[in-house]
Amino acid sequence: MPQMAPISWLTLFFIFSITLIIFNIKNYYCFFYNSNESSQNFNIPSHKMNWKW
């Protein structure tokens, strides 16, 4: 089995690290959270429950 030179291990490490960082940054900035719409759609019922036990 052929052995790999340390330079190719370093290039593989840097390539995978950079792709991981780019993937995480892309996922972080592509997530849109609309807090105004979700707070307006969430309505708490105002009537009180009257339990007669």
Automatic annotation (TrEMBL):
GO molecular function, one term: proton transmembrane transporter activity
InterPro entries: ATP8_metazoa
One Pfam family named in its UniProt record: ATP-synt_8
GO biological process, one term: proton motive force-driven ATP synthesis
Subcellular location: Mitochondrion membrane
Organism: Aedes busckii
Protein name listed in UniProt: ATP synthase complex subunit 8
Transmembrane parts of this sequence: 6-25
Similarity annotation: Belongs to the ATPase protein 8 family.
First-listed, main subcellular location of the protein, grouped into a coarse class: mitochondrion
Keywords: CF(0), Hydrogen ion transport, Ion transport, Membrane, Mitochondrion, Transmembrane, Transmembrane helix, Transport
Subunit structure, interactors included: F-type ATPases have 2 components, CF(1) - the catalytic core - and CF(0) - the membrane proton channel.
GO cellular component, one term: mitochondrial membrane
Highest taxon of source: Eukaryota
Gene: ATP8
